[in-house]
Predict the structure.
Amino acid sequence: MTSPPAIPQSAPPPLDPRRNAYRPDVAASHLQGKVDAARFVTGTPGQIARPVVPLRKNPVPSAALETEAVFGETVTVYDVTEGWAWVQLDTDGYVGYLPADALSRDVQQSTHKVRALGTFMYAAADIKSPPMMHLSLGARLTVTGTTDRFYQLSNGGFVIARHVAERASPDRDFVEVAERFLGTPYLWGGRTRIGLDCSALVQLSLAACGIAAPRDTDMQQAELGTPVAINPDPDSLDGIAGLMRGDLVFWRGHVGIMSDAIMLLHANAHQMSVSTEPLPQAAARIKGTGSEIVAIKRLGVQA
């Protein structure tokens, strides 16, 4: 009796380079056996020492902005060449290049985080003292002491105490956090109140509530929440009835947050800002560009 012909096995898809550190010349040691590289390294820790640092796909200042890292976030450094560090962000696993001099190798264990959209680090416990830098929502801080109004930090700076919370003290309503960004300019790859994109609005708002979310829209669609059934026709009110505050609405390359059953909150390139509009209106406009709603996801969190 002859054996049946072997069924050819398809090769597994390549690892996503956005969240896996590998290049032809070097790769993270934990990827050995999964990718090809000339050498594998374990990497070394680093910490963002500037207010906000751009992470780029290529080590040139003109390369597109992939995302941003804010003060106090930690990274794993796999290579440093000609002033550029090739790193993986510990926050969401994103891989890219940033200026090597934006990193501190003296990594401090953070105790607190900035909970306001933005605040300042001062040189003294006095709001009239010169600010050392601006700090964005989610910036990580190491508090060493307190005064009546300020926290003192390990680097000698001071921040307003009411703008800061303990790392283990999350906000309760991620939609309310997202609504604070109304009017913020749209910036592809941005992650601060200076400018941000649609997926950063989702990621930052959830992070403020202690919920880890991936960086990009396709990752969020795949990994967040559970599906809500939708009508294939996004112009049909029947297709979007029953939505709830906090539901995430996805198009290819775009995501918005329902602030109630009708209104969509999103950072968008039409208004070039974070804005709200009725979902049927947004769906009709976006459909005119050739894109329809592809998923609605409901998170298992109170919103």
